[in-house]
Amino acid sequence: MEEPLMHFATGSDKIIITNIYSSNERSDVMKNFLSKVFTKKGKIQIEFCQNNLDRFLDEQTVADYGKFLANPRIQYKEYECLSECKLCKQTPYAKVNGQIMNAKDSRNLLNQLYDELK
Fold first, then answer.
1. Lowest-confidence pick of 20-34, 55-69, 83-97
2. What pTM was computed for the model?
3. What's the rounded Cα separation, in Å, for the pair 103 and 34?
């Protein structure tokens, strides 16, 4: 976006500076302003243990997890191990924004992850 043209208008002892934008530039400026004023929900950071995924994720839910993780609000990483070995052997889990979230099966964990997006 090019720099807007500046319009100088002299008043009594003041100089009034106004920006003159094209309609597209004005629209972009307004969108940027509104997006800052009405903040969107933040990103969710999720960490997965690869060992846990291998243990509890089945073929049926792999595609569903892939669809979920494609959401632009989701930032995720898979680690070989998250050092939660006792939990890892018992139940599917993930660290969501640093907090452990677990469920009885991978489908329920995915449902809980979707709830975090709301």
1. 20-34
2. 0.65
3. 38
